[in-house]
Amino acid sequence: MTTYQTGFPTNFLWGGATAANQVEGAYNVGGKGLTTADMVPFIPKEKRGLNFAIDVNSDYIEKALNEEVDDRYPKRDGVDFYHRYEEDIALFAEMGFKAFRLSINWARIFPNGDDAAPSLEGLEFYDRVFNELEKYGIEPIVTLSHYETPLALTRKYNGWYSRELIPLFVKYAETLFNRYRDQVTYWITFNEINMMGHSPYTGGGVLVDKLPNQTKEQISYQALHHQFVASALVTKLAHEINPDAKVGCMLARGQTYPVTNNPEDVLLAQHYNDLNLFHTDVHVHGEYPSFMNRYFAENNIVIQKEIGDDEILKQYPVDYVSLSYYMSKSVASNSEDYEQVSGNLTTYAVKNKYLDTSDWGWQIDPKGLRITLRDMYNRYRKPLFVVENGLGAYDKVEEDGSIHDTYRIDYLKKHIEQMKEAVKEGVDLIGYTAWGPIDLISMSTSEMSKRYGFIYVDQDDEGNGTLKRFKKDSFEWYKQVIATNGEEL
């Protein structure tokens, strides 16, 4: 009789995921330098348009540094994880976390990105965090670059548009690999590396306005190439320092569907899926897929490579593929005939009438996660890791302090059910770290009211509040999910 995996593996890594720039705060503590995230202002919802992007320009940065603008920068303060990490990790442990995905802020280690020596204070902070995780037996999943390019590198080199960042990033990674070789097994090089195409500033600290003679696409793909090479070199280095290390890439994945079975719509959906998956194609297969040759030629994109780049990509592929999944997208060749989706990152999508929509215009599609996992595993045959998935929603605190977030439980339950189905179908899945186990500053909008957590943080969009932590109903629910290895949802 043929047998198959009927549930999640016994060593499945359940947990949650955060980013330094969204939780830590303490932006000017311990010698930390400014990052690109520290310069992103809060923009009220009424001032954001459809397809809102997070870019800022060089003129704005200089004015902000000279205090010539009256804006607020929520990511500078986060939710004060820097001073409250013990309390927060204890709450994660109470939920039974097997893993915690976090990022290390490059500018906390090398304040300017190209300093001769790392900051001891910065390293000692992460020493304390890793020791606390170790105390509870929680596996750290560490992202090296999560939208946190040192601002000095943006101003000096224009971020990842310059090859100068490759050796600087390798030096930064080497510092961490040597220091934490006995505490960290799982590393991720770049968070959602495909963000570069949507926001080069967010994804790579690139100021498009400083390159007026080039298209945004040309700039983005050139910067991406430098990140691909850096990722491969860092993967090589990690394995040399610790042969047991596992290095992964990370993609913001949202399955794209044709809105009808019209072959024009099917081809368009395939095109957008390929443009998304091309990023992981390079990381896994070690080469640019052939379909990108036509795309580059037709869009007048020329990637400047150095001798040896292609060989580096080929020799050092990633060990696993990690992804974020929040929603799917639908496209139509005649998009003007359909209602657009209002989500601020769905730049080409039309509304899928079969799906519900979140408060932020993201279409909720649990079965899309199963489709995504099956497709990616069939394409790569590498272990997969869902390192972000969650629902950003408005939460109401009742008079007794309780938060009844049944909508969040429903969202996560349905996605976990579909992950389990994918595992039954043979997908090799390492783990699941829900996005924002504690409320944090939104990456895309710098809001606090867009809440993801199992843990509520008392802070509003204007930065007011006690920062006190409260358990939501989803806290006990997720605790039960982990305790039963996903059997009781």
Q: If you had to describe this structure to a student in words, what would you say it looks like?
A:
This protein is α/β, with parallel strands linked by helices and 489 residues long. It has one domain: TIM Barrel, CATH 3.20.20.80. 38% of the residues lie in helices and 13% in strands. It has helices spanning 20-23, 58-65, 81-95, 106-109, 120-135, 151-157, 165-179, 195-198, 200-204, 216-241, 263-285, 291-298, 309-315, 366-380, 406-424, 473-483, and strands at residues 13-17, 99-103, 139-145, 186-190, 246-252, 256-258, 320-324, 329-331, 356-357, 363-364, 384-388, 429-435, 455-457, 469-471. A hairpin with a 5-residue loop joins strand 9 and strand 10 (363-364). The radius of gyration is 21 Å and the shape is globular. The mean pLDDT is 95. It comes from Paenibacillus amylolyticus.
How many DSSP-defined strands?
A: 14
Q: Tell me the β content.
A: 5-15%
| Radius of gyration, taken over Cα atoms and rounded to an integer in Å | 21 Å
The largest sheet is: 8 strands, parallel, barrel
**Helix-strand pattern:** EHHHEHHEHHEHHHEEHHHEEEEHEHEEEH
Instruction: Give the class-level CATH name.
Output: Alpha Beta
